[in-house]
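Exercise 7 asks you to align residues with tokens for two separate proteins.
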Amino acid sequence: MAGRTTHISIITLNVNGLNSPIKRHRLVEWITKQDPTICCLQETHLIGKDIHRLKVKGWEKSYHSYGLRKQAGVSILISNKIDFKPKLIKRDKEGHYILLKGTIHQQDITIINIYAPNNGAAMFIKQTLLKFKSLIDHHTIIMGDFNTPLSPLDRSSKQKLNKETIELNNTINNLDLIDIYRIYHPTSSSYTFFSAAHGSFSKIDHILCHRATLRQYKGVEIIPCILSDHNGMKLKINDKRRKEKAYITWRMNNRLLNDQWVIE
């Protein structure tokens, strides 16, 4: 298996459109520099006839979801460095999500890449998670642009979470999923997006993992990206994905949300 690697890292980035050849070229340069093994992109704005334009040398496997108009659009790109075999693909007809289930070096993995619409983002994420409830397992990683903070720390304004976001957090918790960034950075106020209209920073890009397999991850970070109005995020997975069934029982204290951060 020459050229293969057991080191796995996954990047997520809202690219804010890829119809410009220059933008696509800069994205390829950025991916090459970051050197992930899997790349999840949101807001590609590519339609069916243009998908072939998104090419990265050494990344022959790519999976896309797109609509009829040049908006939304999500893609999952997979490097030739890993032996990935697909088993199941589910796409949104408007390009807001794609679910990809398969194996990497004969180990199961499910990736759900989501771009939530600006309006009703928290409800959309909640409904998408519930739609895929039967497919979400210990090997699932969910990432993308959720278009909503999950914690008061995710906003520079420290604005209170609304009821829809609290309901989303409850759903995440009930599915045994966890915001892995907050495991490694529990008090960090780092952001992935700047809103010029509101003059505020926020972290609306997220990575959710199953709490039963947290030990297989070795870190997550926000990474700068000058080609988009979002920063990216990178999740690093241990070289040897542990097979122990150790179950991490950390669970969000919902009282912290309900008591302090709900808008009445």
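Second protein for Exercise 7:
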Amino acid sequence: MQDANHQFSLPKGMYLLSHSVGCMPVLTRSLVGQTYFEPWQQKGGDAWPQWLTIIEQFCHELGSLFNASAADFCPQPSVSSGLNQYLQSLRCVQSKNTNRPATHKRTVLMHASAFPSLGFVVQGLAAYGFELKLIEKDIDPNDIAAWQAHLTEDVEVAMITHVHSNSGVLSNVADISALCRAKNTLTVVDVAQSAGVVPIDIAVWDVDVILGSCVKWLCGGPGAGFMWVNPKHINALEPKQIGWFSHQNPFEFDIEHFAFADAAKRFWGGTPSILPYATALVGVQQINQIGSQSLFEHSKTLQRVVLADAAEHLLTPIDVEKVGGTLSVHLSKPKLTELERALRQAGAYFDRRGDCLRLSWHIYNTTQEAQRVAQIFKSL
């Protein structure tokens, strides 16, 4: 896998920032030109059939990545958009989705370390009766007893973060979702920090919705998110932000007749955005060719190289089997400052969240880079 870095356009230096933005595949410029710009230039409005093929291919690649049907994916501009869409679609079908009596407050439960934007979505839907409930930040996200205690009668939806952005902690989605099913609670999983770098089989999880983004480990650039909707429940969902591409037949053009698309595309909306998905398609194809299992194993190998010299300096121990592709390292303030300065001098790309530095290990990172970072830790 040491040669995989030649498949990506890498900034000069050590790029350890894939948890923020994945590097662009070398083929992206040329392929996007062929699939998006050339049809536009040569055909104008007649480019639409080719453009829509991009969306079909995008969903097909997601199906391969997650072991699911392409029909059950729908493009979304972001994870937040997908969550907003899904929660609003539940309003008309509350009695169909739960054995509990209807209540005025409809609670969405998530861990306090979930990405803040998800909480903002719930708070923004207060007028629809939704209320945010948090599992305290100092509680392990995998503490099943804590989930059990917080899954009270008013909780309609549990929002599970597969890999937490600040800590890198990997959640046991299968166990948490099984508990939610036992309590008749709907489950939504955020895979923005795991898609591509952690192998995912949706069938094993048996959840209701997954939401993701291509900007990070999938190396697809910003603007191309996605949602997967469990086909078992799709007909009970009635999205509110609909448009002609939410229609069973978008080209019927009868303003007096609307029928929802049979599958996840009912969440699509109006005239679709194409360019972000043309860009993202190349990234997802590249990751599928490499294989998320291979990427996962490569990332773990490099993490172990770093931790061999870093472990003694960490305030919070890291088990590589319990995190995603990112090492979130907590050190004493003097050492943290020293580490940050040394990494910058070495030309490393990384970021800081509070009292930790985040260092991510993708397929294009090398053993030599991991050894370099390990040596920096050793010199602290």
